[in-house]
Specification:
Oligomer: heterodimer
Distance between the termini of chain A: 36 Å
Order of helices and strands of chain A: HHEEHHHHHHHHHHHHHHHHHH
Largest sheet of chain B: none
Radius of gyration of chain A: 22 Å
Number of domains of chain B: 1
Radius of gyration of chain B: 21 Å
Strand content of chain A: under 5%
Strand order of the largest sheet of chain A: 1-2
Largest sheet of chain A: 2 strands, antiparallel
CATH architecture of chain B: Orthogonal Bundle
Structural class of chain A: mainly alpha
CATH class of chain B: Mainly Alpha
CATH topology of chain B: Helix Hairpins
Number of strands of chain A: 2
Number of helices of chain A: 20
Distance between the termini of chain B: 59 Å
Helix content of chain B: over 70%
Largest interface: A-B, 28 and 32 residues
Helix content of chain A: over 70%
Chain lengths: 492, 122
């Protein structure tokens, strides 16, 4: 079928075109607009799944925008690795949007909800394109779309905290893209290419002639993506931004947006820089040590928080660091663990933010100390919180165990047992701040002191879907692990 | 000495990097939000300058093929890329400035340190 060969472009275009129809439709039929967005995401998910099947059957697919062939035109590459990330992005955003439909009415003024849909779809489209693009400059443009829309879904709430947090996020993210663009300039200067594949070929000879340019570019890329993905110590913007945003935005930002940057850095390190450069420069070592520090400090900061959403935000810093560790260890099993953690953490943290959102929806309580006895008042929401916490800690039967298991296996394989300790202590530290909330919620002597409104059915359903996924990811990880194992095999 | 002569030869690269560092430093250290946005623009512009300078070929002509012999052409691609970059930078600064207006209404100041104080007092 003719349409089938344009799937990579259609996956980006569908949410993009619906983005601008949503607010128009919202003025007349608010409900229909919401369902249209849901439908467009569903169609995108189906197309991504079809593409994944097609690629699994026929091998990687290269799509040339406007039929301009690679060194000049923009190329989208659909290989199993990128499509895995694509499916995660679309599936999680569909799921979060399902939750957002009801929750937004509570958190935003009515007249901006239509515009929220626009921003949401723009964010999804840019992330979907970021997974597939094979062109450095195209990646820059997509990163900027992603940055603006992710700031805007924070500041759309328009209270003082959100505005300030959003501005801080915007400035640091502009610094990140500035560094990234300078990095592109450095590479373009010595190679004359922007396509990943052509760059890699040229760079293997260019490194010998212009080493300084290439080293500078590598440093700039690490700073750029480190800032955007909140790699310690460039994480300062994250806690305020993720904690003050509306709950669906928090779920999206913590669940997907920071990971897409980590994934892009991974692609650049492995697909743009030649292997010889990676062996001669301690790039992965730098990422690895920063990640190890991030695991520790993210968790320690999280322990000191009194606000529930702030605690979850700090915990994201520790968890993104786990993904960076998978990239930095530079070993196949560890990489599989890190990539698996992208999906697991996207769902886990998304669900925890949804549970926190549901608690705020029903009771208005944000402080951790006020949650005593809430488990008896809202059993389902707290059950979701418990499963999410279990996955964060890595208790058997949840997805969190699998990714940490592979990460630890990979670290042992290359004899770096120190990082196994880091992974273990991350679990321990997570237990220290997640478990008291759960225990306090269910076992506390006193009853919950605040009035509890009913949680809408759709919110509950979204939480149930999340719980099911986490357990399935913990019990049947095999197909995904096999897919990832094959996808990364040619990097080593 | 060779380093110096190379620097003088490629003075536009040096200018771009100096502007980049000025922009980045101001953006991260100044507490006034409007100055941050200005610095952001300086930083972006410096990269645009560097990019366009890469495409320049000494003695090159505009890349319009008129069929008269072999000549040296300037690389047109960086210019086209930077056009996109400029559009992106404009939209980011427009958004940042609109945020500053909202922040000014909410806090009565555009100074980050003062906002921190106000939030600390709450």
């Amino acid at each position: 079928m003719a349409l089938a060969e344009h799937l990579p472009a259609l996956i980006v275009i569908t949410p993009l075109s619906c983005a601008f129809m949503a607010p128009l439709l919202y003025r007349r039929h608010a409900l229909a607009s919401g369902y249209m967005v849901l439908l467009s995401l569903l169609i995108t998910l189906v197309m991504s799944a079809l593409l994944l099947l097609k690629v699994n059957r026929e091998g990687p697919l290269s799509y040339q925008m406007g039929n301009w062939s690679p060194p000049w035109g923009i190329e989208y590459l659909a290989d199993p690795l990128r499509l895995y990330m694509l499916v995660v992005v679309i599936a999680v955003s569909l799921w979060v949007f399902f939750y957002a439909l009801k929750d937004l009415e509570h958190e935003l003024r009515r007249e901006v909800i239509g515009w929220y849909y626009t921003l949401y779809l723009l964010l999804v489209a840019s992330m979907a394109a970021m997974t597939m693009t094979n062109d450095l400059f195209n990646l820059f443009v997509l990163m900027e779309i992603c940055a603006i829309s992710s700031c805007a879904i924070i500041t759309i709430k328009q209270d003082r905290e959100c505005l300030e947090a959003g501005f801080k996020y915007l400035i640091l993210s502009a610094m990140g893209t500035g560094c990234y663009l300078l990095g592109i300039a450095m590479l373009y200067m010595v190679t004359g290419h922007l396509n990943f594949e052509y760059l890699q070929n040229e760079l293997s000879t260019a490194v010998a002639i212009y080493p300084l340019n290439v080293f500078t570019a590598a440093a700039l890329f690490i700073v750029a993506f480190g800032t955007k993905a909140a790699l310690f110590p460039l994480h300062v913007w994250l806690p305020d931004a993720h904690a003050s945003a509306p709950s669906p935005s928090s779920a999206m930002l913590s669940g997907l947006v920071i990971k897409i940057y980590a994934f892009s850095l991974f692609l650049i390190l492995y697909q743009v820089f030649p292997r010889s450069l990676l062996d001669s420069l301690p790039l992965s070592e730098i990422v690895l040590w920063l990640a190890a520090l991030g695991v520790m400090f993210g968790s320690i900061y999280a322990m000191m928080q009194k606000d529930l959403k702030k605690m979850l935000a700090y915990s994201s810093i520790g968890q993104i660091a786990i993904i960076f560790m998978g990239i930095g260890l530079d070993q196949r099993l560890a990489l599989v663990g890190g990539l698996y953690h992208i999906a697991v953490h996207a769902v886990t943290k998304g669900m925890l933010f949804m549970a926190a959102g549901a608690i705020i929806y029903a009771t208005g309580v944000r402080k951790i100390s006020d949650l005593a006895g809430i488990g008896r008042a809202m059993p389902l929401v707290l059950a979701a919180f418990t499963i999410g916490s279990a996955s964060m800690i890595g208790i058997p039967g949840t997805g969190g165990l699998i990714s940490k298991w592979y990460l630890a296996l990979g670290a042992l394989e290359i004899g770096r047992s120190l990082f196994v300790l880091v992974v273990l202590s991350s679990s321990l530290l997570n237990a220290i701040y997640y478990l008291p909330i759960v225990i306090n919620a269910f076992m506390s002597e006193e009853d919950f002191a605040h009035k509890v409104n009913e949680v809408p059915k759709m919110l509950q359903l979204a939480l149930v879907i999340g719980m099911i996924f986490i357990v399935v990811a913990g019990v049947f990880p095999r197909p995904l692990i096999l897919l990832l194992g094959e996808a990364v095999a040619n990097f080593f | 000495m060779e380093m110096l002569s190379r620097l003088i030869h490629n003075y536009f690269y040096l200018a771009a990097i100096i502007l980049f560092v000025i922009g980045m430093h101001t953006m991260l250290t100044h507490s006034n939000m409007v100055k941050k946005v200005i610095a952001m623009n300086i930083m972006d512009t410096s990269v645009f300058l560097l990019f366009v300078a890469i495409g320049y070929v000494r003695g090159g002509k505009p890349p319009i093929i008129d069929g008269i012999g072999e000549t040296l052409y300037v690389n047109p691609l960086p210019g086209a890329l930077i056009l996109t970059g400029i559009v992106v930078a404009v939209s980011i600064s427009a958004y940042a400035l609109s945020l500053i207006i909202k922040i000014q209404r909410a806090y009565g100041t555009v100074d980050c340190d003062e906002i921190c104080q106000i939030r600390g007092d709450e």
